[in-house]
Write a structure and sequence with these properties.
The complex is a heterodimer of chains A (about 325) and B (about 280).
Chain A (H helix, E strand, L loop, with lengths): L1 E12 L2 E12 L3 E5 L6 H9 L6 E6 L2 E2 L10 E4 L11 H11 L4 H14 L15 H13 L5 E5 L7 H18 L2 E5 L3 H7 L2 E6 L2 E6 L1 H6 L4 H6 L6 E4 L10 E4 L4 E3 L5 E10 L3 E8 L2 E8 L9 E6 L5 E3 L8
Parallel strand pairs in A: 3-8, 3-9, 6-7, 7-8
Antiparallel strand pairs in A: 1-2, 1-4, 4-5, 9-10, 11-12, 12-18, 13-17, 14-15, 14-17, 15-16
Helix pairs in contact in A: 2-3, 2-4, 3-4
Chain B lengths: L7 H29 L3 H6 L13 H8 L3 H32 L5 H13 L6 H11 L5 H25 L3 H9 L4 H12 L1 H17 L2 H6 L8 H5 L10 H27 L9
The chains are: A alpha+beta (about 325), B mainly alpha (about 280).
The structure holds adenosine-5'-triphosphate (ATP) and magnesium ion (MG).
InterPro entries (chain B): MetI-like (IPR000515), MetI-like_sf (IPR035906)
GO cellular component, one term (chain B): plasma membrane
Main location (chain B): membrane
C-alpha cells in the first residue's frame, strides 16, 4: 500500500518557485531519502508534506486521504528537526508526552508509550532531566523519542544528524536503521550526506533546484544514473568528467568515469601527471591532471605514487558513462 | 567566556567604572532619602549631612500623610502603571508575534507603521487626545491614562519584541504545531517564555516614564480621586513657598514601588532559559 503520494506538487514563495511539479510515491514501510545540494528544496518539500507549508498547487495524499487542508497534528506524521527543537521548559518525559496530551490520550497510554520509547532509545535514566542538561546525542534521541510516542504513519527527519560529531553520527545512523527495522513505519529522511543516503535508503530521491532528477534504489542510482547531475552527486570521491574526445577523436560528448573504475595500466588510455596523493591505508586517492582536466583515481591498496610522476591510467569501457551537452545520459 | 584568560586589571577597571557610575546614579536618590528625614532648617544648612539626633524629623512624612489622599494617589499610580505595562506587553507581544511569524500582504508596511510611533512623541497629539477623551467621557478616569500610556508604549514594544521573536527557532514552533499546539498555545507557552528577557527590558523602559509622568495626569485626569502620585506631590510645590520636607518624603515613597518592580523585572533580564532548546 502507498503511504504517501505527491501529485504535481508546486510551492512558491512569492516569485521564487521552489518546488516544481514534484511527483513521488512512497510505499508503506519504505525508507526514503531526499538528497540534493543545499537550497534545492528538500526541507521545503518535507515541510509541505508535514503541513507546515501549504503547497501552492498539487495533491498530497497520506494513505488514502488527501491531506492538503489537514493541519500538521492531524496528518499522522511526526517530525525530527535538525536543531532538535525540544521544549526548553519541559523535562524529557513531558517533552515526549506533550503531543499525546494534546490528543487527550488516557494517562496509562501516555505512560506506556513514553516507557516504550525511552526503552528503545535508552533514555530511561534521563526522563526527569531538562533539555539543557543533556548532551547533543541525548537531545537528538529525545527528539526521536518524541516522534516515536505518537505512533505516526510516516516519520519525517530533516538532517537529524548534522549537528552531531562523526562518531555519534555513525552510531545514531545505525540506531535509526534499527529503529526502522523494528517499527516498520515509512520514513522520509532529508540529508546532504551521501553516506547516510546510501546506507539508510530503500529509495533515494535526488532533487535539484526543486526538480526530482531521479528516483531509485541506491545501487540503481549509482550504477545507472539518469544524468550527469545524479552521476556527479552520488559517489565519493565524485565521478570524473572530461571530454570524450580525449579518448576518441571527434567525440563531442562528455565522458564520466568513477575514480574507483580507474586503474594503473601500462596500456592505459591516459597519461596523467600526479598533483596530489592521499594515502588512506586501504585506498590511495590520486589527484592528477590530463591536459587541463583534473582527474581523481581511487587505487585499491597502497601504492607508491609520488607527486609530479606520470601515471598511466586505464579503464574498462563498459564502466564509462556518456552524457550529451545538456547533461542527459547518452547510452 | 574563558575565565582563565580574563586579565585581573581589566576586571578591576571594569568594576571600578561600574561602581563609579552606580555611585553617581544613586547619589541624588541618596540625597533625597537622607533629607526626607531631616528638619527644614537642617536640609538647608547641610544638605549632604546624615540626619542625627538634632536634625532628625519625620515632619515631611507626617505632612504627606495628613495632606490630601496620599494612599489614593499611590494606588492610582500603581494601577495605571501596572495596567499600562500589562497591556503594552500583551498587545505588543501579540503584534510582534504576528509580524515575525506570519507571512501576509503588507507585513513589512505594517511593521514600519507600528514603528513610526517611536519617532513621533505622543504629546504632540495631546489636544486631539483630550478631545477624544472628552467625547468618550473618559476624562478624569484612570482608563484615560492607561489607554494613552498603552498607545505610547506599544511602538517600541512591538519593535523590540518582534526582533527577538524572529530569533526564536522556527523548528521549535513547528515542533509545537506538529504536536498539536494551537497558535495561542505556541505564543503563550513556547514563544513568550523564550522572549522573557526582552519583555522585561520593554517593561523597565516603559515603567519609569509612566510612573513619573506629570503631563497626562495633569491634563486628562486632574480630579482629586484620579490624581497620580506625581500630580499629588505637586500640592507641596507652591509658587512662593515649597514644603521641601513633604516633597522629599513624597519622592522617597514614590521611589519604593518602582524599585520593587524593577527588581522583579531585572531578575528576568538576567535569567536566560533558552539554553538547551536548540543547539
Ligand atoms: N520562507 C521562505 N521564503 C522565501 N524563500 C524561501 C523560504 N523558505 C525557503 N526558501 C527558499 O527555498 C529554497 C529551498 O530551501 P530549503 O530550505 O528547502 O533548502 P534545502 O534543500 O533544505 O537546503 P539545505 O540543505 O541547506 O537545508 C531556498 O532557495 C530558499 O531560499
Ligand atoms: Mg534544509
Amino acid at each position: 500500500m502507498t503511504a504517501l503520494t505527491l501529485t504535481d506538487v508546486n510551492k512558491s514563495f512569492g516569485k521564487v518557485h521552489v518546488l516544481k511539479d514534484i511527483n513521488i510515491e512512497i510505499e508503506e514501510g519504505e525508507f526514503v531519502v531526499f538528497v540534493g545540494p543545499s537550497g534545492c528544496g528538500k526541507s521545503t518539500l518535507l515541510r509541505v508534506i508535514a503541513g507546515l507549508e501549504d503547497a501552492s498547487s498539487g495533491e498530497i495524499r497520506i494513505g488514502e486521504d488527501v491531506v492538503n487542508l489537514t493541519p500538521p497534528s492531524k496528518r499522522g506524521i511526526a517530525m525530527v528537526f535538525q536543531s532538535y527543537a525540544l521544549y526548553p521548559h519541559l523535562n524529557v518525559r513531558k517533552n515526549m508526552s506533550l503531543a499525546l496530551k494534546q490528543e487527550k490520550q488516557p494517562k496509562e497510554v501516555i505512560e506506556q508509550r513514553v516507557a516504550e520509547a525511552s526503552r528503545m532509545l535508552s533514555l530511561e535514566d534521563y526522563l526527569d532531566r531538562f533539555p539543557s542538561e543533556l548532551s547533543g546525542g541525548q537531545r537528538q534521541r529525545v527528539a526521536i523519542g518524541r516522534a516515536i510516542v505518537r505512533h505516526p504513519k510516516i516519520f519525517l527527519f530533516d538532517e537529524p544528524l548534522s549537528n552531531l560529531d562523526a562518531a555519534l553520527r555513525m552510531s545514531t545512523r545505525i540506531e535509526i536503521a534499527s529503529l526502522h527495522a523494528q517499527l516498520g513505519t515509512s520514513m522520509i529522511y532529508v540529508t546532504h550526506d551521501q553516506t547516510e543516503a546510501m546506507t539508510l535508503a530503500d529509495k533515494i530521491v535526488v532533487l535539484r533546484d526543486g526538480i526530482v532528477e531521479q528516483v531509485g534504489s541506491p545501487m540503481e542510482l549509482y550504477n545507472n544514473p539518469a544524468n550527469k547531475f545524479v552521476a556527479g552527486f552520488l559517489g565519493s570521491p565524485a565521478m570524473n568528467f572530461f571530454p570524450a574526445s580525449l579518448v576518441r577523436d571527434g567525440d563531442t560528448r562528455t565522458m564520466g568515469i568513477r575514480p574507483e573504475d580507474l586503474f594503473q595500466s601500462d596500456q592505459g588510455a591516459f597519461a596523467a601527471s600526479v598533483t596530489h596523493v592521499e594515502k588512506l591505508g586501504g585506498d590511495t586517492n590520486v589527484i592528477a591532471t590530463i591536459g587541463d582536466h583534473n582527474i581523481t583515481a581511487r587505487l585499491f591498496g597502497q601504492h607508491d605514487v609520488a607527486e609530479g610522476q606520470i601515471l598511466q591510467l586505464g579503464f574498462d569501457p563498459a564502466k564509462a558513462f556518456y552524457f550529451t551537452e545538456d547533461g542527459a545520459r547518452d547510452r | 567566556m574563558n575565565k582563565a584568560r580574563v586579565n585581573p586589571l581589566n576586571t578591576a577597571a571594569m568594576h571600578g567604572a561600574l561602581i563609579l557610575y552606580t555611585l553617581i546614579a544613586l547619589f541624588p536618590v541618596f540625597v533625597i532619602l537622607i533629607n526626607s528625614f531631616k528638619t527644614r532648617k537642617a536640609i538647608f544648612r547641610e544638605p549632604l549631612a546624615l540626619p542625627d539626633g538634632d536634625s532628625f524629623s519625620m515632619i515631611g512624612y507626617q505632612t504627606v500623610m495628613k495632606q490630601g489622599d496620599f494612599f489614593l494617589y499611590f494606588q492610582n499610580s500603581l494601577i495605571v502603571t501596572v495596567a499600562s505595562l500589562f497591556f503594552v506587553l500583551l498587545f505588543g507581544a501579540m503584534a510582534a508575534f504576528a509580524l515575525s511569524e506570519y507571512r501576509f500582504k503588507g507585513n513589512t508596511l505594517m511593521g514600519l507603521y507600528l514603528a513610526l510611533g517611536i519617532m513621533i512623541p505622543i504629546r504632540i497629539g495631546t489636544v486631539a487626545i483630550l478631545e477624544m477623551m472628552v467625547a468618550t467621557g473618559l476624562v478624569n478616569s484612570l482608563w484615560a491614562l492607561i489607554l494613552v500610556y498603552t498607545a505610547q508604549g506599544l511602538p517600541l514594544a512591538v519593535f523590540i519584541l518582534s526582533e527577538f521573536m524572529r530569533q526564536v527557532s522556527d523548528d521549535l514552533k513547528n515542533a509545537g504545531r506538529i504536536d498539536g499546539l494551537s497558535e495561542y498555545a505556541i505564543f503563550f507557552k513556547l514563544v513568550l517564555p523564550l522572549v522573557r528577557p526582552a519583555m522585561a527590558t520593554v517593561a523597565v523602559f516603559n515603567m519609569i516614564p509612566i510612573w513619573n509622568d506629570l503631563w497626562f495626569p495633569l491634563i486628562l485626569a486632574p480630579a482629586e480621586e484620579t490624581k497620580t502620585l506625581t500630580l499629588g506631590s505637586q500640592v507641596f510645590i507652591g509658587q512662593f513657598v515649597t514644603d521641601w520636607n513633604a516633597v522629599l518624603s513624597a519622592l522617597s515613597m514614590a521611589i519604593l514601588p518602582v524599585l520593587v518592580l524593577y527588581v522583579i523585572f531585572s531578575r528576568q533580564l538576567i535569567r536566560g532559559i533558552t539554553s538547551g532548546a536548540v543547539k
